[in-house]
Write a structure and sequence with these properties.
By secondary structure, the protein is α+β, with helices and mostly antiparallel strands. It has a single domain, classed as Nucleoside Triphosphate Pyrophosphohydrolase, CATH 3.90.79. Helix content is about 15%, strand content about 35%.
Length: about 130
């Protein structure tokens, strides 16, 4: 094995939060896909699990808190070109709220809002594929 065959892989977590037939999305405030809508999510920090990262990113980007142990894993998404910045592997989680909570965009999100699952905008990355895996 040579250095050219070693690939840097970044580890992330995303969350699909559902309520009354709607999904919570954030509008990205930075490249890539600046201005596009995406699932809340981000990098897994040192010392945390992907489940903990998904819960943390949800709070940071939308102000909505869901306990990490309430998240159910949807799957692992690792297609080589799913992110134009390089190789990113994400673990996606889902949770359902009985009623939509009011989001408050924070961290890297320009906006956060609930979207009807039947009328979604064009999504960043492979987030349409992640949603379709439910």
């Amino acid at each position: 094995m040579n250095d050219e065959s070693i690939e840097t892989i970044r580890y992330t977590a995303d969350i699909i939060l559902i309520s009354n037939g709607r999904v919570l999305l954030i509008e990205r405030g930075w490249a890539p896909f600046e201005g596009r809508w995406a699932l809340p999510g981000g990098h897994v920090d040192a010392g945390e699990t992907s489940r903990e990262a998904a819960a943390r990113e949800l709070v940071e980007e939308t102000g909505i808190r869901v306990a990490a142990d309430a998240l159910r894993q949807v799957g692992v998404f690792d297609a080589p070109h799913r992110d134009p910045r390089g190789r990113y592997v994400t673990v996606a989680y889902t949770a359902t709220l009985p009623a939509p909570a009011q989001p408050l965009a924070g961290d890297d999100a320009r906006a956060a809002r609930w979207w009807s699952l039947s009328q979604l905008p064009t999504l960043a990355f492979d987030h349409d594929h992640i949603l379709n895996s439910l």
